[in-house]
């Protein structure tokens, strides 16, 4: 039985990727759930959604990208790895992250407009982190890790990355650190803050004016004569 599975994996490499992601993604989600202090209990249905998305969507997509990247950039030297990592963030990362946000929200049964809103709100913040994370991982992996251990490094990095994706899926846009928020969101919040400050200043000015009028009125008696 094990030999048959091994032969199938060697003959169809995509099956190895699907098997890996069938464990990697649900496990990452379980870790994220355990780190989420707002949860009272685990949500097995959510973990099942990560299993479905990781196994039947992400794994095949990654497999296709790896094959395509190998044809675009041929070579296994460090410079080739850096080039592949750069191309990955330009060509593949937006596709993979779009697949994640739309896929996971659709599996939750949300309306299409809500799915698109989450994708629109979180794609750029997620991509900002990916640009900082994956090129460093790939460069260190090819520069300092033995070839036989590179798959392990990528697997660990993928595990951590999926935890981050699960975190991003559950966090609200306004709760993100300022440097990860969309520019439009930051501008709107700054504008609202300025409007609130202007409103408070206007209220304070009104109160000061009212107090001044009351003070002046107290200097006159009921007949309109100035009180000495």
Estimate nothing, just give the exact number of structural domains: 2
Number of E-type strands:
0
Integer-rounded radius of gyration:
28 Å
Averaged pLDDT: 83
Helix content: over 70%
Termini, distance in Å? 109 Å
Query: What would the principal axes of the Cα set say about the shape?
Result: globular
Which ranges are low-confidence, i.e. pLDDT below 50, for 5 or more consecutive residues?
185-190
Strand content: under 5%
How would you sum up the major sheet? none
Q: If helices are DSSP runs of H or I spanning 4 or more residues, what is the number of helices?
A: 7
- Secondary structure class reads mainly alpha
How would you spell out the order of helices and strands?
HHHHHHH
InterPro entries: Mpv17_PMP22
Membrane topology: Multi-pass membrane protein
Family: Belongs to the peroxisomal membrane protein PXMP2/4 family.
Main location: membrane
């Amino acid at each position: 039985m094990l030999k048959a599975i091994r032969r199938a994996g060697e003959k169809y490499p995509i099956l190895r990727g699907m098997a890996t992601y069938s464990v990697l993604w649900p496990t990452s989600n379980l870790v994220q759930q355990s780190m989420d202090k707002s949860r009272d209990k685990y949500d097995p249905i959510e973990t099942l959604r990560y299993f479905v998305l990781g196994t039947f969507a992400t794994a095949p997509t990654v497999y296709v990208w790896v094959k395509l990247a190998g044809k675009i950039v041929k070579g296994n030297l460090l410079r080739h790895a850096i080039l592949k990592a750069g191309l990955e963030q330009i060509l593949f990362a937006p596709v993979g992250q779009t697949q994640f946000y739309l896929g996971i929200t659709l599996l939750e049964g949300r309306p299409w407009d809500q799915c698109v809103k989450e994708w629109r709100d979180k794609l750029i913040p997620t991509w900002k982190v990916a640009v900082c994370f994956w090129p460093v991982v790939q460069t260190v992996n090819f520069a300092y890790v033995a070839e036989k251990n590179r798959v392990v490094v990528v697997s660990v990095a993928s595990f951590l990355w999926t935890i981050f994706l699960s975190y991003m899926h559950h966090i609200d846009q306004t709760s993100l650190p300022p440097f990860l928020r969309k520019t439009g969101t930051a501008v709107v919040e700054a504008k609202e803050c300025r409007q609130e400050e202007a409103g408070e200043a206007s209220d304070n000015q009104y109160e000061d004016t009212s107090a001044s009028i009351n003070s002046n009125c107290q200097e006159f008696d009921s007949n309109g004569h100035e009180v000495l």
